[in-house]
Amino acid sequence: MSTSWIVVLAVLIAAFGAAFVVGRLLTRRSGLMKGAAEWPVLKDSEIDELGLSRSGPTVLHFGAAWCGPCVGLRRVVDQVCADLPAVAHVEIDMDANPAAARTLSVLSLPTTFIFDADGGQRYRASGVPTAADLRSALEPLLA
User: What is the full per-residue pLDDT of the chain (143 aa) written as tens digits?
Assistant: First the structure.
């Protein structure tokens, strides 16, 4: 192998390594790799501002009128909340209430949260979660 091929190979390996490290850092920063222990517990004032239930779990989701996937999310959340009547449901329009989105670091729509009665975040998903995912996150909170 000539020296130029070795240099090209070393540069490619270094570039892929750097891309991997940057990707991991961005994923970790966006919260996709956070464990439940790292999720915030809301203050009483934030619980009231967001309209969360203090008697049981709350499904909170952010959407907007122009968001196509938000329609699908509404159907999933409505179905789950109909099956589990002890679960409160709050929908926040991100355009109408950007301060709430900043409080929870919402960067994409739709974003869904599940909070326990104490304001502890127990679940977070970007996109449209399945009904089974929501139920499996909610059922331990109802026991």
Answer: 678 888 888 888 988 888 888 877 766 655 444 455 567 788 889 999 999 999 999 999 999 999 999 999 999 999 999 999 999 999 999 999 999 999 899 999 999 999 999 999 999 999 999 999 999 999 999 87
Q: Is the peptide bond before 110 cis (omega within 30 degrees of 0)?
A: yes
Sheet of 121-126: strand order equals 88-93, 58-63, 111-115, 121-126
3-state secondary structure of 102: helix
38 part of a folded domain = no
pTM assigned to the model? 0.72
Tokens encoding 89? 């449901």
CATH of the domain at 86: 3.40.30.10
Does 111 share its domain with 137? yes
